[in-house]
Design a protein that fits this description.
It is a multi-pass membrane protein. This protein is an all-alpha fold. It is built from 18 helices and no strands.
Amino acid sequence: MEGNLKNVLVLSFGFLLLFTAYGGLQSLQSSLYSEEGLGVAALSTLYGGMLLSSMFLPPILIRKLGCKWTLVLAMCCYVAFSLGNFYASWYTLIPTSILVGLGAAALWSAQGTYLTIVGNAQARKTGQVGKDVVSQYFGIFFLIFQSSGVWGNLISSLVFGQMPTQGTIPEQQLQACGASDCLMAVASTNSTKRPSQDLIYTLMGIYTGCGFLAVLLMAVFLEPVKDAQLEGEGEKQAPPFWSTLLSTFKLLRDKRMRLLILLPMLSGFEQAFLSGDYTRSYTTCALGIQFVGYVMICFGAVDALCSVLFGRLARHTGRTVLFALGAVTQLACIIALLLWKPHPSQLPVFFVFPGLWGMADAVWQTQNNALFGVLFEKNKEAAFANYRLWEALGFVIAFGYSTVLCVRVKLYVLLGVLSAAMAAYGAVECMESRRADGPLATEQTKPAEEGVTQTKL
């Protein structure tokens, strides 16, 4: 097997194992630990830690340790979160959530940097256009990675399904489900009782084992990579500490980055809504906690399939068409969720929304990452650190107001963020189109690593 592709597959399966555990835990936090809002507080703290670490940690770790060992170290933080869920309390979940937040920014920045480097290396080797190979590699990665939503949630549903925790749901509770829900974020009901401690121990043991396997796979089989662009510049004096520390913010001098920060924020808002509000106020409220896993499987499966599809389609349609598809799909879902009154008799509908949500999310994950990698190819570490910083801010805000706003208001907020993000993205595309028609247009023939003017994927 070709070396760069092998590394992409190792990276992808490492993330598959890691997020089989973490993804399943995240989907359950708001339902499993509803008392006093512990679940959403843990998630908000987690992404708060990610927000802070995104400001400075990823570029420093990647330069000091390299992409490989940054990935290994960050994965160990996720394993600690699984261990913290064995005895969930404010004293175990909050500290381990902070630890995951610190590791998450470095994990995703190293992942984006690694895929961009191996994609451009493969393009030079085969004579292909760098941006096309990078987009294809991101598609392969997210195909495998997003399937973690299937396996992690399947495991939780099978384990919790051994002891059903739901009785008959009263009509009064059903009337308060969906967009009308203003109390579910902190209230514990008949349908949201925690499963037995033995079942929780079983689930956490499986998830922790997956995390350890992920760390082992990356440490043993992933090959270190070096950025050919930096090597080509020769041996230069290492940049000052504060220059590296502030490289994430320095990239905000670029007007394109200032506009594009809304895209990762949208990613944070929409993922937080699905994992924190849809699972709690729609699925758990009307069906019970044992259905959360099955519903999220639908999201993960569609997301995975669409990720590889969109990665390949991008070279034929251009990314603008895919961004439009994602925006229209998510807009339709938001409007429908505002109008829908969930009821157990409408079981198929509970799976339709996560499926459509997964299709839109596949656009954001594949095309946002490829867009940042291409536009800011000379500042990859800082670009992906910015991406995770603003995505984390979206998560923090969404989880932060989770216990104080009604679901209807949250959907209107999400609608506003979606509209603003698409307007800002359109402005960047106009800027790039004008640049392509200018003096820099000749650089369109160069590989992606030689400039940032090639943007149509």
